[in-house]
Write a structure and sequence with these properties.
By secondary structure, this protein is of the alpha/beta class. It is built from eight helices and seven strands, in the order E-H-E-H-H-E-H-H-E-H-E-H-E-E-H. The chain has helices at 15-27, 44-59, 61-66, 77-81, 107-122, 144-158, 173-195, 218-232; strands spanning 6-10, 30-37, 67-74, 126-128, 163-165, 207-208, 211-212. The strands form two sheets. The chain has a five-stranded parallel β-sheet with strand order 3-2-1-4-5, with helices on both faces.
Length: 235
Amino acid sequence: MLPTDSALVLFSGGQDSTTCLAWALKHYARVETIGFDYGQRHAVELTVRPQLLASLRALDPAWDAKLGEDHMIDLSLISRISQTAMTHDIAIETQANGLPNTFVPGRNLLFMTVAATVAYRRGLTVLVGGMCETDFSGYPDCRDDTMKALQVALNLGMDTRTKLETPLMWRDKRQTWELAQELGGAALVDLIRAGTHTCYLGERGALHDWGYGCGACPACELRARGYRQFVNAGH
């Protein structure tokens, strides 16, 4: 870790972004967070963010010392210009192009562009996102090639040398749970299990062994399967 390294973490309040935030707190001397209100159906993820941040501070005094400002950005224009199952009350299904209609076109591209703008203003040198193409729903804006191309474009357009880090890119959900255990032990795993929100439908009724959620949407299925593989591996 270099004392000049500083990171801005795209932090939604979900499993992946919380794991990435813990990863950033382990690797960087100064860490800030950014969240986006884009009219998502599962806006409950935004309501759990403050408590998650407070809980992460309480887990480790070193994390508390590193964790700085949280930035909440209104990107509701996304829901106005898109028609997806993530932003409108419609059934989740596969589209003619083979992608699920939970794919929000341009979302991660906008997220990273806005985050890079905030990082520029704040003097932060690294952007950290939970994009993954090992265990995901096939979103093209989660691919490694997309992130590498975006890093080039942002640095050219802003005359910077900002790094885009995606610690989960080649990890499946079981390995994401394992990374959380490596970073913060059982306490972090339990915080992610009970404190984060990933369900696309925003269901936060019963607490399952893997966390809250409807149990049937693609996000819940991935999370539940990964958690059970994690537990079955003896963790």
